[in-house]
Design a protein that fits this description.
Blueprint: H1 2-15, H2 18-43, H3 52-70, H4 79-85, H5 88-93, H6 98-128, H7 137-168, H8 172-185, H9 197-203, H10 213-220, H11 226-253
Length: 260
């Protein structure tokens, strides 16, 4: 009941900022249009492998749309602000674990972003570039499961980034490092199979391909190992959850409050 309330309240708060989010969505559309235009230009002189020009248009459109539900979430889940104000001590004393408390609040924001930003962004690209939607129900189901896990993986990563601010006072550098790495090896700009061999080899040992590449390719039907993609994401969700709880246990033993 508590988590459902946190989820609902976070969702309702976001509804108050629909105008600001609409402006941000326009910015996302502009960037996506630029990326697509680049691939259209490249496709004029190159075959673009198994994707082709139309496939890359759909690939970039889907990536740009889900970005607001995967990578564009609250920095550090707001833990740094709690540390600076001193409220982190109160939150750690609550009779509910800090991780699910913050995760469910973020989930409400993510669902809002999916409904009011991701869907309109993809709808725009689908209409402008005549992108066909998947015809197989299993593609929709697999993509939905993968997208939920992708968002959860990033929640876990941001939770640990936020927890780092308990020692450093702020961890924004870790957030931008995470963002930069994700842009390179998550499959956002390039499909994973097109990355240079060293980057491709490194990417498969990280959760990043499951943040962007997996949900997009499952939705488009270009993923050659759909079951492995889902199981891999599930394994990372389990591992990162355990790590988040372990980090919280360390935080409880050593808490440094910067303000309050």
């Amino acid at each position: 009941m508590l988590f459902a309330t946190l989820f609902r309240k976070a969702y309702l708060v976001q509804l108050q900022y629909r105008g600001a989010h609409a402006i941000r969505s326009v910015t996302s559309v502009i960037f996506g249009y630029i990326y697509i235009s680049i691939w259209i230009g490249l496709g004029a002189d190159h075959s673009l492998g198994k994707y082709g020009t139309e496939g890359m248009i759909a690939y970039i459109a889907a990536n740009q749309a889900i970005l607001v539900t995967t990578l564009f979430i609250t920095y550090g889940l707001g833990i740094e602000t709690l540390v600076r104000s001193g409220n982190i001590a109160v939150d750690l004393l609550r009779p509910v674990h800090l991780f699910p408390h913050l995760a469910w609040k973020e989930a409400g924001k993510i669902v809002y972003s999916f409904m009011y930003r991701a869907i309109p962004i993809y709808a725009f690209f689908a209409l402008v570039f005549s992108i066909p939607l998947p015809s197989r129900p299993e593609a929709w189901a697999a993509a939905a499961c993968s997208l939920v896990m992708a968002s959860y993986i990033n929640i876990c990563i941001n939770y640990m980034i936020g927890a780092a601010s308990l020692w450093s006072g702020e961890a924004r550098f870790l957030y931008w490092l995470h963002y930069a790495v994700a842009m390179v090896i998550s499959g956002f700009f390039l499909p994973i199979e097109w990355l240079p061999a060293p980057l491709r080899a490194a990417a498969v040992w990280t959760p990043y391909p499951y943040i962007q590449y997996a949900p997009v390719t499952l939705f488009l039907g270009t993923n050659e190992r759909p079951l492995a993609a889902l199981l891999g994401a599930l394994a990372w969700c389990a591992a990162l959850t355990a790590l988040c709880y372990a980090v919280t246990a360390v935080v409880r033993r050593k808490l440094e409050v910067q303000g309050g």
